[in-house]
Amino acid sequence: MTLLSRGWKAAPTGHIKSSCCLWERLSSRDPEIPMVMEHRKGTHHLRKGRVSEIGHYYLLTATTHDKIPVFTNPEAARIVLSSLQWLEEQGRICLEAAVVMPDHFHFVAELSDGNLSVLMQSLKGYSARKINELLGRKGPLWQPQFHDHAIRKDEVLEEVTLYCLHNPVRAGLVQNFRDYPYWYCRWEV
């Protein structure tokens, strides 16, 4: 079954690598407490200390050039999600979760082959060609850099996945992330 046939929403029940179920964490979470991750300002910090380790999990983020809200176009958002699916089918990642926001996207994945820079170059290059063709535009679609965050523990993997999925809620686009049309999670949530 593909992401397209699932409508990019809840995937079939899968396994979670820790004793705590993702659904339980979502259900028991206090909705009044915002989910926030610490970010460093300045793009020159993005490559410092970047390490790509096969078998490790990462939260990856890419933003459109000049923060243009390209993904308000549903088909453009679908191209990003299908590009992530293609990377998984090629054995380059194991996609855990993804969300496409109006001007950026986040995804959580286990690196299966290669390195993060080559992975993101491939993802951004392919999706840019397809989206530019769709929208009849030329020029850069993506900012040249990307943000990566290595995930070290299973408990943190769940927290980062929740952070990823709740992006539309924090942005004020929806009240429940399940109502947002452009997300995917390997686990039933």
What can you see in these coordinates?
The structure is a single chain. With 189 residues, the protein is an alpha+beta fold. It has one domain: Alpha-Beta Plaits (2-Layer Sandwich), CATH 3.30.70.1290. It is 33% helix and 16% strand. The protein has helices spanning 3-6, 22-28, 74-89, 116-135, 154-165, 167-170; strands at 57-63, 93-100, 104-111, 147-151, 183-185. A five-stranded antiparallel sheet has the order 4-1-3-2-5, with helices on both faces. A hairpin with a 3-residue loop joins β2 (93-100) and β3.
Q: How many strands in all?
A: 5
Continuous helix count: 6
Strand order of the largest sheet: 4-1-3-2-5
Helix proportion: 25-40%
And the CATH topology?
Answer: Alpha-Beta Plaits
How would you classify the helix and strand content by structural class? alpha+beta
The N- and C-terminal alpha carbons lie at a distance of: 18 Å
The major β-sheet equals:
5 strands, antiparallel
The CATH class name reads Alpha Beta
Total domain count: 1
Assigned CATH architecture: 2-Layer Sandwich
CATH homologous superfamily heading: Transposase IS200-like
Which descriptor suits the 3D outline?
globular
Query: From the alpha-carbon coordinates, what is the Rg to the nearest angstrom?
Result: 16 Å
Question: Mean pLDDT, nearest integer?
Answer: 81
